[in-house]
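**Protein fold record**
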Amino acid sequence: MTTHLQPTGSAYFISKDTALAESHTLSVLVDNEPGVLARVIGLFSGRGYNIESLTVSETEHASHLSRITVVTRGTPHVLEQIKSQLERIVPVHRVVDLTVRARDLGQERPIERELGLIKVAGNGEHRVEALRLAEAFHAKVIDATVSHFVFEITGKSSKIDQFIAIMQPLGLIEVCRTGIAAMNRGPQGM
């Protein structure tokens, strides 16, 4: 009697295909020099990885180092590939997956904050309601005329999303967001 086995692939291959995509926050310490950001972004675009949020700023002036904070989504296998490929770029000093590091330390997700500037036009009752809601969200008025406001709001991205959604029917005109700045909780540095 002959038994025919169907190829099923390795368990490693199956786990890659069935794993769920997760959102992770990566912190990348790089030299502050021309072209570094383009190389990092090129890695993502060249391999079809999406960037949900991107923030860059010099963090150590004397050392000429910048910190790139990237929020991306992928399976655990894809996220490992991204980290590995980022670490191979020459001006990259360190790549830390803040999401995994927090989990390994038994902590909540990293502290993540974003700044939003929200312009809302309105008169009469809409104007009063926009001000009332802004106060409830701890948004500050940073510019105002008789026909519009510009609010400044900081917090988690979900808070800013919610504020934008409630301002939509009140006369939302324009939105500008910084992207996420993040760091892990606790005394450890990057």
Summary: Helices lie at 11-18, 36-46, 76-87, 98-104, 124-136, 157-171. The chain has two domains: 16-104, 111-183.
